[in-house]
TrEMBL record:
Keywords: Isomerase, RNA-binding. The active site is at 138. Its EC number is 5.4.99.-. Coiled coil: none annotated. This is Pseudouridine synthase. Belongs to the pseudouridine synthase RluA family. It comes from Senegalia massiliensis. GO terms for molecular function: catalytic activity, acting on RNA; pseudouridine synthase activity; RNA binding. NCBIfam families: rluA_subfam. Pfam families: PseudoU_synth_2. GO terms for biological process: enzyme-directed rRNA pseudouridine synthesis. Signal peptide: none annotated.
Amino acid sequence: MIIPKESHNIINLKVEEKEIKLKVFLNNKMNLSSRLFKKLIRQKNIFINNKPLSNEFYVYSNDIITIKFEKEQNVYKPQEMDLNIIYEDVDVIAINKEPNILVHPTKNHPQDTITNGIVYYFKKNNIDKKVRLVNRLDMDTSGILIVAKNSYAHGQMAEQFRNNIIKKYIAVVKGVVKENKGIINLPIMKSREGIKQVVDKSGKESITEFEVVERFKDITILSLKILTGRTHQIRVHLSYLGHPIIGDSLYGEESDFISRQALHSYYLKFNRVRDKKEIELKSDLPYDIKALIEKVK
């Protein structure tokens, strides 16, 4: 019996139970959704001991279950780019995103985005999948960006981001923050103008933890952990408290020392998709935030 090698398109699982329903097994082992299970059945992409699944929906001890994902076409233009990949496995890629670059193409900006660079990287490395961004960062925010290589990995990582992933940011803010640490629990919603987000009692629950890293005369360096993922959450919360991020022209004011908001996603801890091993990623501060700190401290 020849079992195909695991890859971004193939997952192999060994059955240890004496007898179990296939759907129950996949749900226990992979947290596979009913929707994806039905899709894989419809596509005939589930195999038992490298034989196509028939009407037998029970599996037995030492059976090898193979799941295959369909090849996909990317709709975005591939573009060679110097991506700073800080982690990769068969399911995800982690990129340390530079500032001043869009993550995803738009109608007015169809290329020169991180997605265009990933499409090129996928093509070069025979990863025949769509680009699935697990998280997004604003154009002017730098730091760790996660990309999934298949639909299953995207669903599993998205669930972690909603519930139990640990993500931290560094921000350089205006003024001296007095408390050493604290929790900002203020609801956020879109403003009537539709451009900015605002703190409003009618908004969605938004929780940000902060801790002072260092204080200087007129600025504070903060480490922040977001427990909810609202648009512009950190920027809105800090501005509302009177400590806008330096260089944030939307929620504060422009700076002579940096051309964008001094916000960087520097830490991420998650469980690897297939074996649940804990992965901890860290990203150094980019050059412009380091230069800002040297100028204003």
